[in-house]
Design brief:
Elements lengths: L14 H13 L6 H14 L3 E5 L2 H11 L7 E5 L4 H8 L4 E5 L10 H6 L5 E4 L11 H11 L2 E5 L7 E2 L2 E2 L6 E5 L12 E5 L2 H10 L34 H11 L2 H19 L5 E2 L15 E5 L8 H10 L15 H7 L7 H9 E4 L7 H18 L8
Helix pairs in contact: 1-8, 2-8, 3-4, 3-7, 9-13
């Protein structure tokens, strides 16, 4: 057992973030206010979209998008089974049904061809998820949505900054939901952002995220510039992002490009140092003129070449002092989705295959090259110990 331990993730927090949060704490205004507005403006500029609306989680961003497109009970939404439960659960909040779709053969992202087979007269939308920061095939998904009259809401929790064929994720579809959870490429500890280029959608989301109050400046009502009067237009939500967290996000956003370059450098180290390990499959390459955010670096074992399975491999990495994770346990494997919608182990062969073989390795800006070397060495040692012996004919 290794005495040192490399965690799966560590947030990259510096003096800039601490100073920004302290400034808000000393300002006397802690909740949603001018700092959150500045964060929205800077994020929209960074992405290249018209509107960015700060919220308290990526899950809230998805929920607000579904509300804006008018999701109703008995509607259906196409969702990849290979995702975190938030992507599917938000559909259930409306009494609608998440229709699970398989992954691409040999990949992590949703298979548009499988999704099309599951469209019915009740299908309202599709939520592609850019797993690990690898862009989905938005050309195929966009064509499908146009052909079958579906709304597209991208789950970009992993995808900052990701681009597809020269277009940054966050500018491609009607809505894109980002997450700033503690493990994401930039963090506000808890938080999210919803982007859109549609003025009417932006107005609706801005109202619904703060109790359905119809005044665009409702957050000002306790300031000198505001008014005590307000009107509740709809039964909205409490999804606003406070200035304390927005300050953290602003400081992180200013480092986003640097963080990305560091993540890409680590991904290249992994690729070069693991290229000759025949027992592993490395992440697939993205298409020309597209960019992977490298939120995750997911390797897949070739089970026929090893005497141990994925779970045992993870345990041996832990013994070597390496933290890992698995992205994701497919939704069809969870009791809720089985009980409520009748899903079972069959019907998702590609997601099943990926799940059974995948290991997410540490990748974050503060990960040192010496730590990458330790991780790679541990992988080499585990593979050597557990490589299947070739049978020799006598």
């Amino acid at each position: 057992m290794s005495k040192s331990y490399i965690p799966f993730h560590l947030p990259s927090i510096g003096e800039e973030e601490i100073a920004a949060v302290e400034k808000v704490l000393r300002s006397g205004w802690l909740t949603t206010g001018p700092v959150a507005q500045e964060f929205e403006k800077e994020f929209a500029k960074f992405i290249g979209c018209k509107h960015a609306l700060a919220v308290n989680s990526g899950t809230s961003a998805l929920q607000l998008a579904l509300e804006a497109v008018g999701l109703k009970p008995d509607d259906e939404v196409l969702v990849p089974t290979n995702t975190f439960t938030a992507t599917g659960e938000v559909v259930t909040y409306f009494g609608a049904t998440p229709v699970l779709c398989d992954s691409l053969p040999g990949g992590f992202n949703i298979d548009a061809a499988d999704a099309e087979k599951k469209i019915t007269s009740k299908t309202k939308a599709i939520i592609p998820v850019h797993i690990g920061g690898e862009p989905c095939d938005m050309a195929a998904i966009g064509a499908l949505a146009a052909r079958r009259h579906l709304h597209v809401i991208e789950d970009a929790a992993h995808a900052l900054p990701t681009s597809f064929e020269g277009r940054r994720v966050g500018t491609i579809s009607e809505f894109t939901a980002f997450s700033f959870y503690a493990t994401k490429t930039i963090t506000t500890a808890e938080g999210g952002m919803l982007t859109t280029n549609d003025d009417a959608y932006a107005k609706r989301v801005a109202m619904m995220r703060l109790h359905g109050i119809g005044n665009d400046d409702a957050w000002k009502r306790y300031s000198r510039a505001g008014s005590w009067e307000y009107q509740v237009v709809e039964a909205g939500y409490k999804f606003n992002l406070p200035d304390i967290l927005a300050a953290l996000g602003l400081a992180q956003l200013r480092k986003c490009e640097t963080f990305f370059q560091q993540r890409r450098f680590i991904s290249e180290l992994y690729r070069s140092k693991l290229a000759e390990v025949e027992e592993l499959e490395l992440p697939p390459a993205v298409s020309v003129n597209s960019e992977h955010a490298w939120h995750l670096f997911i390797v897949r074992l070739k089970p026929d070449s090893l005497d141990i399975d994925r779970n045992a491999f993870i345990e041996q990495l832990k013994e070597a002092g390496v933290g890992t994770s698995v992205h994701f346990i497919p939704l069809h494997r969870h009791p809720f989705y089985q009980r409520r919608y009748g899903y079972g182990p069959s019907g998702f062969p590609h997601a099943e295959d990926t799940f059974s073989r995948s290991i997410s390795l540490p990748i974050y800006p503060d990960l040192k090259e010496s730590q990458v070397d330790h991780i790679v060495q541990a992988i080499h040692q585990i593979v050597c110990r557990n490589r299947k012996k070739s049978s020799v004919a006598l």
